[in-house]
Amino acid sequence: MTDTITPPATAATAPPARSRRPYRVGRGGRGWLVGRGALLLIGAAVTLFPFYAMVVLSFKPTGPVTFPDSLLPWPFSTEAYDQVIGAKSMLRWMWNTLVYAVVSVVGVLLFASMAGYAFAKKRFPGKETMFWSFLAMLMVPYHVTMIPTFIIISELNGVDTYWGMIVPTLANAQAVFLMRQFIASLPDSLFEAARLDGCSEWRVYVSIVLPLIKPILATLGVFVFLWHWNDFLWPLIVGQSIDMRTLTTGIASLQQENVPLNMLLAGSVVAFVPIFMAYLIGQRYFQEGVSTTGIKG
Amino acid sequence: MVALPESRVRGSRPARGPVRRPRRPSAREAGTALLFVLPFLLLFALFRFGPAIAGVFLGFTDYTIGGDTSWTGLENFRRLVDDPTFWTALRVTVVFTALSVPLSMLASLGMALLTRRAFRGAKLFRSIFFLPVVTSLVLAGVVFTWVFADGGPWSRAMGALGLPAGNWLADSALVVPALVLVSVWSRFGYGMLILLARMQDIPAELEEAALTDGASAWQRFRYVTLPQLRPALFFVAIIETTVSFQVFDMIYVMTGGGPVRSSYSLVYLLYDQGFKYFDLGYASAVGVALFVMTIVVALIQRLTLGRDK
C-alpha cells in the first residue's frame, strides 16, 4: 500500500457542495444496517464480557467456579467483599494507590504547566535546546531509564516510601509538551495586560494562566490519574513491602498466593470502580484527550 | 509516548515564526522564566535525562547493588547473544508484536468504520470499546486467567468449534496467541478513537464524488478513506508497536512467563535480571536491546507505512 493513491480521475470534476447531506447508504441499504448492528452488538458483547464475569464471579461464595452456570447471578454472596474489604492490607493498598495517583497528578500538572508557560511565552537562553532534549527523551523506552532511576531512589533511601514512588514520575516531558502547545495558542495580550497592571510573574501564572488552561489541566489530569492508578512495574519494584503495595501490585501478589478467585475478583472490582466512575463522569476528557492530543491511553 | 505532529495537537501553532520578537530577553525576564522551568528541569535532569544516559552506560558495566562496579565493555552484550533466554524473550516479544499490532489495528479500523456515522447509540458503542483501554491489565489479567482456564468460556467455545480446547495459557504453542487476544481486547479502542478523529476530517466531497462515479463501498474505502487515514494509521502503528514491545503486566499476572518461558518477554527478562537477580548491568543491556529494536522498527515503519506518496 505505497503509491496507489490515485483517486478516480473524475473526482476533481465531480459536482461540489451537497457535503452536509446525510451520508447516503450505499448499495447495501437495509442489509448493511442490519449487518452493522449485528457486528457492533457482537463487538460490544465480547468487549463487555470480561467486565460482566469480573462482577458476577466476585459475588459468588468461595468454591469451585463452573462454566457456564457460574455466570448466572445466583447463588449470590458478598462473602468475598467482606473478606477483601475486611483485610487491612487491601485498605492500605487503596490508600497507597490514591496517594500515588493524586499527588502525582497535582505535581505533574503544577510543574508541567509552569514549565510549559515559560516555554510558550518567555524567552531565555537555552530554551530551544532544553525543549528538544525533552522531546528526544520521549524516544528512550521507559525501561531503559527505570533501572538507573531505581538505583538513584534506592541510594537516596526512597525504596518503600511514597516520595520515592512519586517524585520520579513527576518528570513527565509529554505533559510539558502538551502544556506548551496549549499555552502557545493563547494570545500574548492576556498576559501583557496583567503585567502592565503591575502583576508579578507568579501572580500572572496563578490568576491568568491557570484559569485559562483549565481544559488541558482536566484532560491531562485525567490521564495522569489513570496512568498512576493502573501503573504496575514501577510500584512493583519501588513498593516492595506489603504495606507499600498499590492495588495493582497487591492484587497481583494475592494472585500469586493462590487466593480464591471470588476474592481476587472482588479486589479487582474494588480497584476498578474508581476508574469506572471517573470514566463515566469524565468520558469527554478521556475520549477528546485521545482524539485531540493522541495521548496514550 | 510519542510526540504528535503539531497539527493534531489542540490549539497548536508553529513555534517559530513572526511571533518571535527579535530583541534579546532582558536578564530579569530570562531569570524569572528560568525559575518557572527550574523545578521541572531538575526533575527531568535527575530522573529522565541522567537515567537515560546512565541506562545505556550501565549496559557496559557489571553494576550490582552494593557491589563494586567495573567497565566490562561489550561483555554484557556478548553474554546476551550467547544467552538462549534472551533469544527466547526476543522471539516471544517479536511474535507477540507481529500478531497483536496488525490484529488490534484491524479491529480499530473495523470498529471506527462501523461507528463512524452518527446514529443513535454510536457514542455508547465508542464508549464501550474504549473501556478496556482505561482498565488495568492486572485486573483484566485476573479475569482472563479464568476466561482461558480449562473448562472455561474460551476452551468451551474452541471445543465447540473443533479448535484446540483446554487451557491455552498452559499450552506452549497457544499461550502467545491467547495473550495477543487479551492485548487486542485491551488496545483496539485507542486506535479506534484516533482513526475516528481522522475520519471526521476527511472531506465528505471526496466520498460523494466517488459515490457519484459509481465506486463500490470497497473501492471508496480502498481509494478514498484508506489513503486519507494513512498518517493516523502510521501513528497508531508506532504507538501500538511500542506498547507491544514492552508487554509485561498481563504476562506477569496470567502466565508468569510460562509455560517453560514460552511467554517470556524482553521486559520480563529485564525485570528478572534486574530486580530478582539484581544484575542491573545485564538488565540494562536488555534495555539497550529494546531501545535499539524500537528505533529500528520505527524507522522501518517510517519508510513503509509513513512514506509520503
Automatic annotation (TrEMBL), chain A:
<dbReference type="InterPro" id="IPR035906">
    <property type="entry name" value="MetI-like_sf"/>
</dbReference>
<protein>
    <submittedName>
        <fullName>Carbohydrate ABC transporter permease</fullName>
    </submittedName>
</protein>
<keyword id="KW-0472">Membrane</keyword>
<feature type="transmembrane region" description="Helical">
    <location>
        <begin position="263"/>
        <end position="281"/>
    </location>
</feature>
<keyword id="KW-1003">Cell membrane</keyword>
<feature type="region of interest" description="Disordered">
    <location>
        <begin position="1"/>
        <end position="21"/>
    </location>
</feature>
<dbReference type="Pfam" id="PF00528">
    <property type="entry name" value="BPD_transp_1"/>
</dbReference>
<comment type="similarity">
    <text>Belongs to the binding-protein-dependent transport system permease family.</text>
</comment>
<feature type="domain" description="ABC transmembrane type-1">
    <location>
        <begin position="94"/>
        <end position="282"/>
    </location>
</feature>
<keyword id="KW-1133">Transmembrane helix</keyword>
<keyword id="KW-0813">Transport</keyword>
<keyword id="KW-0812">Transmembrane</keyword>
<feature type="transmembrane region" description="Helical">
    <location>
        <begin position="165"/>
        <end position="183"/>
    </location>
</feature>
<dbReference type="InterPro" id="IPR000515">
    <property type="entry name" value="MetI-like"/>
</dbReference>
<feature type="transmembrane region" description="Helical">
    <location>
        <begin position="131"/>
        <end position="153"/>
    </location>
</feature>
<feature type="transmembrane region" description="Helical">
    <location>
        <begin position="98"/>
        <end position="119"/>
    </location>
</feature>
<feature type="compositionally biased region" description="Low complexity">
    <location>
        <begin position="1"/>
        <end position="17"/>
    </location>
</feature>
<feature type="transmembrane region" description="Helical">
    <location>
        <begin position="204"/>
        <end position="229"/>
    </location>
</feature>
<feature type="transmembrane region" description="Helical">
    <location>
        <begin position="37"/>
        <end position="59"/>
    </location>
</feature>
From TrEMBL, chain B:
<keyword id="KW-1133">Transmembrane helix</keyword>
<dbReference type="GO" id="GO:0005886">
    <property type="term" value="C:plasma membrane"/>
</dbReference>
<feature type="domain" description="ABC transmembrane type-1">
    <location>
        <begin position="90"/>
        <end position="301"/>
    </location>
</feature>
<feature type="transmembrane region" description="Helical">
    <location>
        <begin position="127"/>
        <end position="148"/>
    </location>
</feature>
<dbReference type="InterPro" id="IPR035906">
    <property type="entry name" value="MetI-like_sf"/>
</dbReference>
<feature type="transmembrane region" description="Helical">
    <location>
        <begin position="30"/>
        <end position="50"/>
    </location>
</feature>
<dbReference type="InterPro" id="IPR051393">
    <property type="entry name" value="ABC_transporter_permease"/>
</dbReference>
<dbReference type="InterPro" id="IPR000515">
    <property type="entry name" value="MetI-like"/>
</dbReference>
<feature type="region of interest" description="Disordered">
    <location>
        <begin position="1"/>
        <end position="25"/>
    </location>
</feature>
<keyword id="KW-0813">Transport</keyword>
<feature type="transmembrane region" description="Helical">
    <location>
        <begin position="89"/>
        <end position="115"/>
    </location>
</feature>
<keyword id="KW-0472">Membrane</keyword>
<keyword id="KW-0812">Transmembrane</keyword>
<feature type="compositionally biased region" description="Basic residues">
    <location>
        <begin position="10"/>
        <end position="25"/>
    </location>
</feature>
<dbReference type="Pfam" id="PF00528">
    <property type="entry name" value="BPD_transp_1"/>
</dbReference>
<protein>
    <submittedName>
        <fullName>Sugar ABC transporter permease</fullName>
    </submittedName>
</protein>
<feature type="transmembrane region" description="Helical">
    <location>
        <begin position="232"/>
        <end position="254"/>
    </location>
</feature>
<comment type="similarity">
    <text>Belongs to the binding-protein-dependent transport system permease family.</text>
</comment>
<keyword id="KW-1003">Cell membrane</keyword>
<feature type="transmembrane region" description="Helical">
    <location>
        <begin position="168"/>
        <end position="190"/>
    </location>
</feature>
<feature type="transmembrane region" description="Helical">
    <location>
        <begin position="280"/>
        <end position="300"/>
    </location>
</feature>
<dbReference type="GO" id="GO:0055085">
    <property type="term" value="P:transmembrane transport"/>
</dbReference>
